[in-house]
User: What shape does this take?
Amino acid sequence: MGLGWINVEEYDFNCLLLMERFQIQMMFSRNDEEFKRNIGIALNANPAVKWYLTRRCPERASVIEEISANAPDAKAQDEIRQAEVRILAGAEDWVLYTTPEKMDASCDWIHKWDKSQLFELADFSGKTVLDVGSGSGRLAFAAAEIAQEVYASEPVGTLREYLRGKIKHEGITNMRVVDGLVTELPFSDSMFDIVMSGHVVGDFWDEEIAELTRVCKSGGWLLDCPGYDADYDEGEEKAEDDELVKRGWEALSYDRYRKQIFK
Ligand SMILES: C[S@@+](CC[C@H](N)C(=O)[O-])C[C@H]1O[C@@H](n2cnc3c(N)ncnc32)[C@H](O)[C@@H]1O
Assistant: This one.
């Protein structure tokens, strides 16, 4: 089942031409036959996309060539389009990020969210703040209203451009945008009073939290603030096996978490 954020049928398969190297790496780490069949059909029908993926991510070139060589021969346009749509649906979040202007409108966690949920987690006044995996900047723009300085790190180029455009358009002077993965942040140790994110950690818990902790000052805060979710239960007790709770984070209502760092 898709995420339900966008109708991927409205997207051209060429949107894969906007994928980043780390996204191509992840996409071609999958080892399921259905994915291989569909991407093979779609790439053979879109040789420019195949060319781009193999050049942009040379470490996956041989896998891509092998999938392409083993794909069934599909000639009918509807069969090709069906394979393309299945690939786009399986990468719905990355497809959405190729049209950042749609994020704020399509994603409930952004447009139904109230920024007071962030401000309750820590005192932002006068602080130096990092928003990791900033996306369209939900958390970063809110923090910039109060904090001294906000850095938005974002590994997807289309989203970085969107953030920079919005900063310029709104005349914001205390926010900077940089590239960076949560496991490899381009900052020195102990730079930030607050290191926050939403919908970013969870693929590699140990490495991600170690990196968030590295860039946070002693006495500073790590925050996880996912925004609106129709399914959360405000009073819900967090399970003891919850990954962040296990790692000593405090769980708050609206699925929020925080941890004060001491070094
Ligand atoms: C669902 S969006 C959430 C955006 C924003 N944090 C928010 O809550 O509104 C996930 C974001 O994480 C970014 N992202 C994905 N993988 C990442 C990684 N390994 N390191 C840092 N950011 C990542 C995506 O590019 C995207 O901007």
